[in-house]
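Issue 218. Parser rejects a valid record. Input:
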Amino acid sequence: MKTAPSKRGPTSNKYALELDGKPCGWVTDVSGALAVGELGGEGRPDRYEELTLRCWPGMPHEFYAWVAASMSNRPTPARGEVILADDGNAEMSRLSFAGGVITELALASYEYGFRDSLKLNLKFSPHSSKRSYTGGHLGGEVIEARRPLPATDPELHIDGLEEACSQVRRIEGLMIRQRIERPPGEDGMYTVRRVAPPVVGRLALVLAENKALGFTRWLEAVEAGRSNGRAATLTLGAPAVGFTVVLQQVRPARIVEEPGEAGDNRRREVRVELDARGVEFAFAPVREAVV
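Output the parser choked on:
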């Protein structure tokens, strides 16, 4: 499959992230309360807003461990820093947060072969935060991690449909969301409860119609009551990290023809929409990157 050339550079990463005192990669964009002020503080100690981070998938193991720990049965909060740096690695501002828990992980759309278009969107809820302007320059391990790792395609596997999965041209709609609650006051910095299991949005796969026979037969089996669902995995980011989204009890909801443009004589494509009843996270065995 043809791959578009990379246009990413070190300065596409604007914010250094630290978790529990250790460098944890860089993110490209930050939005939400972080951009306009502080959370918590006097008069509003129990105000828990969400901040949004965008990043290349090639984040270190510690970052994805935070995602997995946040969405476990007992969410584990983290203390951290989000540091805005200029192109010369000078620190422009720093936001320190406590009790940070990931509440959403999303991949809006990805077309295979265009690896530089793939970014993850994450929302996280801190218990409290404080902004500071200390100046100085970043260095050492933090700077070394600023350049994005080589881009890789997400790897999709569905039990019994390995060949069909290898023909998928586009993935859309991966969204995992959880609701959390905290006790009031300082206890909310360390104790977080999940209101309900994470909700998984409908995942869509686009591929050539003549390669989708396995999905068509699977849908027929589900509609006839002969299938109880399958396991599916989606591995994101660097192969050396192996962060894997494990979707449980996956079933096809429908298969529809993708609309084509007028005069488009390319082979017809279909859109396979999948529902999952649960999700977990794992780390696949380390393997070599394919770039």
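Fixed in the parser; the record now loads. The chain is about 10% helix and 40% strand.
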